[in-house]
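User: For a benchmark we're assembling, each entry needs the component sequences followed by a predicted structure for the full assembly. Here are entry 17's components. Please fill in the structure.
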Amino acid sequence: DTAVSQTPKYLVTQMGNDKSIKCEQNLGHDTMYWYKQDSKKFLKIMFSYNNKELIINETVPNRFSPKSPDKAHLNLHINSLELGDSAVYFCASSLRGGSNTGELFFGEGSRLTVL
Amino acid sequence: GENVEQHPSTLSVQEGDSAVIKCTYSDSASNYFPWYKQELGKRPQLIIDIRSNVGEKKDQRIAVTLNKTAKHFSLHITETQPEDSAVYFCAAINTGTASKLTFGTGTRLQVTL
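Assistant: Structure for entry 17:
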């Protein structure tokens, strides 16, 4: 059983388009995250939700909009895609906002390529 | 906020040698320090972690040491094998707050035959 799953795994699209990535976790965790990994492999947090509530919102363009319909799902919608948005986007979950355990469980990643 | 620095950015060792990756952190309140391994094209996965009440932790060929006074922690891999080749990330967090896990910039380890 996949613990954290995200779709799609690959996205190739043109500049200016809008795209979404979906994430689901079956671990019963309260907290979910979106991380961006660029070509240099840096892992940067973008957003975090704890039980559907936004708790971390890093300096991210407002073209990026997360949505958490319930604590098992966290989606990422990106408007007006730009070349610099090309990256691998990782969804992750943790037991409870870092408390008790800081362990993150990552999804397999969604590689976004903007042409 | 927390700032984590990681060195070296790349490391090449021969199979059987040891590898050491070092990280420093800025927030003295950080109390949990995990290490993640990311193989090529795969997701980062936790390989070992250490909490601030412990100075050293070992799991087979992998060990982590923590110096709270100096605010640095290190990953040690002994008897390296080709399958150890990957990008390794250190991270730090204060688990008492709802803060984020701050990652280092990663170390690409290459184990050569």
